[in-house]
Amino acid sequence: MIIQREITLSEKKRGFHLITDEVLRKFPELGQVNKGLLHVFIKHTSASLTINENVSLDVPGDLEKHFNKFVPENAAYYDHTLEGSDDMPAHIKSTIIGCSLSIPITSGKLNLGTWQGIFLCEHRNRGGARIIVATVIGE
Amino acid sequence: MIIQREITLSEKKRGFHLITDEVLRKFPELGQVNKGLLHVFIKHTSASLTINENVSLDVPGDLEKHFNKFVPENAAYYDHTLEGSDDMPAHIKSTIIGCSLSIPITSGKLNLGTWQGIFLCEHRNRGGARIIVATVIGE
Amino acid sequence: MIIQREITLSEKKRGFHLITDEVLRKFPELGQVNKGLLHVFIKHTSASLTINENVSLDVPGDLEKHFNKFVPENAAYYDHTLEGSDDMPAHIKSTIIGCSLSIPITSGKLNLGTWQGIFLCEHRNRGGARIIVATVIGE
What we know:
Chain A is α+β, with helices and mostly antiparallel strands. The first copy, chain A, has helices at residues 20-25, 58-70, 87-97, and strands at 2-9, 15-18, 35-42, 47-53, 100-106, 109-110, 116-122, 130-138.
């Protein structure tokens, strides 16, 4: 069984945002799957997807600060600067973090660890609504 | 055909550890699959999975040193510090490296390159036994 | 339906190279798939795969410069130096960027965003021809 759907996420401000519930709410078919994988793919090159700790709000805050420090704006070596100082860093963060996730599904639920949640990493100051493609392969 | 199983890995000390054989030993069903994918997912946010060179022990050692330098402990900008100085760096490394791998299966074997092996990246000083979910989709 | 094929990519010089068309040309079976996933896996530990912006040539150039700065050659802490100054950085970049991609297929086409393309990231000065395994799971 393959189920696939495009989902438009609500607009987020720059930073790391827990979206587990938003994804599940917009993809109720997942409950029908006994065993399989959920693949989530973001159709953009200036935002990314990760899994990280889902309780302490300090974690997404520190992730944002760390990536801003190690992928700086206005680096002297950037040539791609026409779309704003947040643009080239967004592309680099996207390649470091990645644009897709695959998560096991077991008995109709995401088989995440207790402390794991899905995060949208919005790397632009005004990224707008982001589109993801969710694909389930399962039985 | 979908096969899925949770596997508990033996406890590892902090660093990068080759686990290809440990995973295969605990997942013998893989030999039944002619063509497909093995997905391995770690249910934690302070350890990660990667593929890298499987012979020289200097490679995992240098990876550990590199990530310790570029994801430092006790950075002045961390707010998430209650769980120890190795905790927030572990979360950041997990997002950089990633919590899952997908590997092609061909004729009952992982279709890895000659020098490729699966590594558990243990980012905590005392991470304990780690749980992974292995899912095969194949025929 | 599972389709799997090894593809040899033409040799590339060090840097980030758009390969979407080369992959599709060598994997025409993708057009038969209505719904599913394409998995692309590179069988090497000194090159990697990413998705990033497919128009401005400044983006792959800036990615190459950024990774060369933050994963330096000849770092004092490297022990794995016998295979050349570009070797250990190549292994580190491979772990940061990753050796595989999964991309949704919809109606016989890769369901990428408008600005997304597949890149081979060649981290060696002379990496030679690289082999990837393409696997489609779909219907």
